[in-house]
Amino acid sequence: MYTGVLMARKRSATFDDWLFAVRYEFPEWERYCRSRPPVLKKILAILADPKQGIAGIINTYQIPVSSLNPLVHYLVENQI
């Protein structure tokens, strides 16, 4: 419910918001955050960094592996 209120208010999402949504399994908020250009840009920068990549997302940012499926699906589906 809270995530719906944030989205309805068009709250500006941050990378930290995305991390929170992924870690604590708020799929609607995660999708909303990921759709914001600055957040997506940061995610792509991490994935493109040879020193970080997927391992960096999992280890440095403590993202569960299962949470990466929606992200990868989104990136492939949208050819990003």
Explain what you see.
The chain is globular, with a radius of gyration of 12 Å. It starts with a helix and ends with a helix. Helix 4 crosses helix 5. The chain has six helices and no strands. 18% of the residues are buried. The longest helix is centred in the middle third of the chain and has 12 residues.
Topology summary:
Blueprint: H1 2-8, H2 15-23, H3 27-35, H4 37-48, H5 53-59, H6 68-77
Helix pairs in contact: 2-3, 4-5
- Unreliable stretches (pLDDT < 50, length at least 5) are none
Mean pLDDT metric: 87
**Helix percentage range:** 55-70%
Quick one: biggest sheet? none
Termini Cα gap: 30 Å
**Rg over CA atoms:** 12 Å
Helix-and-strand structural type: mainly alpha
- The percent range for strand residues is under 5%
Give the SSE order as H and E letters.
HHHHHH
Number of helical segments with 4 or more residues: 6
Number of strands: 0
Shape: globular
Oligomeric state of this protein: single chain
